[in-house]
């Protein structure tokens, strides 16, 4: 491998560590919700708020991240994001109440929103056209790696809590398990902050600020010299062809010339989240518990979600510059619709019935006399079963032991549900996960890219916030089957959108794409 390729890969991998922190920070909460719901006596909407509050502030940060990075630089924004990740991790772990936990999560959300926008933008601006798809996908790869590590560390901490080792008791891992889950993120956040001092500034940003000599130096390190000079001239021509203002107003995005790229960007931004991926990532153990396998098994199967996500993201990276963006989106969205329909069927076929034996096996704190009042009564949906439990048990007891009650009553096919979830995650990871961000980095012209990516990122995050917030409520109101059926329908609609509207962008420079997609 050539020296300039090694340099570019090293820079891309370092910058993409922001994706790791984003994935870890967002998904670590999946292991926490089970414990904070009874501890802080949360309603379903409050539980959703504990998850989605991070995304709310990530949404706000996305709107500011692009323009701010245009002023102070991509690298500087990422350094501040690393600081916020570390502060959020420590603050969340030490939070004495629900309010302070949410505030700490919101602070982390600013780091999430900033890194989610700026990391792929930075990588796209330093990458040669032939490597751009793969290198920008490094950020998505790190996001899924962060998700996988979060699922694994959650399971590890849960298992350590049952250990009799003296150091486990000394550290309070059983008593403060969810606090340890949240606090671990401080370590990679500090590492990321230090690593960013060893990457150069974006060549396109440098030229935007008139630092052409430094930009040329970076381009030569990232490309062969002849290609670097050609890239330099292309960037220069692109910047000169527009009237660059110090601050570009939002209304510039809605001019007729940008109509096509804006429709594509907004459509993909909505589609990526409305198909339910963050419901699975942020509530994975909760979903698996609904299939009746119990808490320990639910946490271990969540690891399979992370590993599936990781493996199929690697598949996407291998093929994104070979097959192209559009074929991967088509294959993935077809899979998303199919596997969500499988999930809906699997949960719809489940029945719930408590027998005398299963009632006797319930924890001591559960009112068994109350459960005997519904002994051998069969319920054909999880909504009806939970509604009945809510009538006969104290709410705090039901929150704490819902997993055990479902496991004792459900008659379902957990393997079918596992296949549905893993198939859905694989379909997402090979398509919408990495491909959307690659397309975002390619669709918009140089002069407005920062603002445009912030805008579509804002929409993406706003939809994600809504999905996360209402998911616990959906499960209790619509049931698991109804919730996943809705996601499957959105996946089918998205497939039609991609086939009819989204273009292929592989192998073209950013300047070539601007000439093709942006009407003069």
List keywords for this structure.
Growth Hormone, Chain: A; mainly alpha; 2 domains
- The count of DSSP E runs of length 2 or more, i.e. the number of strands, is 3
Distance between the termini: 40 Å
Helical content class = over 70%
The radius of gyration computed from the alpha-carbon positions, rounded to a whole number of angstroms, is 24 Å
Low-confidence stretches: none
Task: Characterize the overall form.
Answer: globular
Residue-averaged pLDDT, rounded? 85
Strand content: under 5%
How many domains comprise the coordinates? Answer: 2
Strand order of the largest sheet: 2-1-3
Q: Please write the string of helix (H) and strand (E) elements.
A: HHHHHHHHHHHHHHHHHEHHEHHEHHHHH
Q: State the fourth-level CATH superfamily of the largest domain.
A: MFS general substrate transporter like domains
Structural class, judged by helices and strands?
mainly alpha
What does the model show?
Helix content is 77%, strand content 1%. It has 520 residues and is an all-alpha fold. It has two domains: 3-199 and 241-348 and 415-517, MFS general substrate transporter like domains (Growth Hormone, Chain: A, Up-down Bundle); 351-411. The longest helix has 32 residues, at 129-160.
SSE diagram, text form:
Layout: H1 3-15, H2 17-27, H3 33-39, H4 44-72, H5 74-94, H6 98-126, H7 129-160, H8 166-171, H9 177-183, H10 186-195, H11 203-208, H12 212-222, H13 225-240, H14 259-274, H15 277-290, H16 295-319, H17 325-348, E1 351-353, H18 356-360, H19 368-372, E2 378-379, H20 382-392, H21 395-409, E3 410-411, H22 414-429, H23 432-443, H24 449-477, H25 479-501, H26 510-517
Antiparallel strand pairs: 1-2, 1-3
Helix pairs in contact: 1-6, 1-7, 2-5, 2-6, 2-7, 3-21, 4-5, 4-6, 4-24, 5-6, 5-9, 5-10, 6-7, 6-23, 6-24, 7-9, 7-16, 7-23, 12-13, 14-23, 14-24, 14-25, 15-16, 16-22, 17-22, 17-23, 17-25, 24-25
């Amino acid at each position: 491998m050539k020296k300039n390729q090694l340099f570019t890969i090293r820079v891309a991998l370092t910058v993409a560590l922001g994706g790791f922190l984003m994935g870890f920070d967002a998904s670590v909460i999946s292991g926490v919700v089970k414990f904070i719901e009874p501890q802080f006596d949360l309603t379903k909407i409050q539980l959703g708020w504990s998850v989605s509050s991070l995304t709310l502030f990530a949404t706000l940060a996305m709107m500011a991240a692009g323009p701010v990075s245009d002023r102070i630089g991509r690298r500087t924004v990422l350094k501040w994001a690393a600081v916020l990740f570390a502060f959020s991790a420590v603050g969340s772990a030490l939070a004495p109440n629900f309010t302070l936990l949410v505030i700490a999560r919101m602070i982390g959300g600013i780091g999430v929103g900033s890194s989610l926008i700026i990391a792929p933008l930075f990588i796209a601006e330093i990458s040669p056209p032939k490597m751009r798809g793969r290198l920008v996908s490094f950020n998505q790869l790190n996001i899924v790696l962060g998700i996988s590590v979060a699922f694994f560390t959650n399971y590890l901490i849960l298992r350590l809590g049952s250990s009799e080792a003296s150091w486990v008791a000394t550290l309070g891992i059983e008593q403060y398990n969810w606090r340890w889950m949240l606090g671990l993120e401080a370590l990679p956040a500090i590492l990321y902050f230090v690593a960013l001092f060893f990457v150069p500034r974006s060549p396109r940003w440098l030229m935007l600020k008139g630092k052409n000599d430094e930009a040329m130096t970076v381009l030569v390190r990232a490309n062969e010299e002849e290609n670097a000079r050609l890239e330099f001239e292309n960037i220069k021509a692109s910047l000169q062809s527009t009237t660059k203002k110090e601050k570009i107003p939002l209304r510039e995005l809605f001019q007729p010339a940008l109509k096509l790229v804006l429709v594509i960007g907004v459509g993909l931004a909505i589609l990526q989240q409305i198909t339910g991926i963050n419901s699975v990532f942020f509530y994975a153990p909760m979903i698996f518990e609904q299939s009746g396998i119990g808490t320990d098994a639910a946490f271990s199967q969540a690891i399979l979600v992370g590993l599936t996500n990781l493996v199929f993201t690697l598949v996407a990276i291998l093929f994104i510059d070979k097959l192209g963006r559009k074929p991967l989106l088509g294959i993935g969205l077809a899979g998303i619709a199919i596997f969500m329909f499988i999930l809906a069927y699997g949960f719809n076929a489940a029945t719930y019935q408590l027998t005398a034996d299963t009632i006797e096996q319930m924890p001591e704190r559960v009112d068994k006399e109350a459960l005997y009042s519904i002994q051998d009564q069969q319920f054909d949906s999880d909504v009806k079963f939970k509604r009945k439990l809510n009538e006969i048990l104290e709410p705090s007891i039901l929150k704490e032991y819902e997993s055990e009650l479902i496991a004792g009553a459900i008659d379902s096919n957990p393997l079918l549900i596992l296949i549905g979830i893993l198939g859905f995650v694989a379909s997402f990871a090979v398509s919408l996960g990495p491909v959307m961000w690659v397309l975002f980095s390619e669709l918009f012209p140089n002069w407005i890219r920062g603002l445009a990516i912030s805008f579509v990122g804002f929409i993406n995050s706003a939809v994600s916030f809504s999905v996360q917030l209402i998911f616990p409520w959906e499960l209790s109101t619509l049931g698991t089957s109804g919730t996943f059926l809705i996601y499957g329908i959105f996946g089918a609609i998205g497939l039609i959108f991609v086939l009819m509207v989204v273009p292929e962008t592989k192998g073209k420079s950013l300047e070539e794409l601007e000439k093709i997609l942006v009407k003069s």
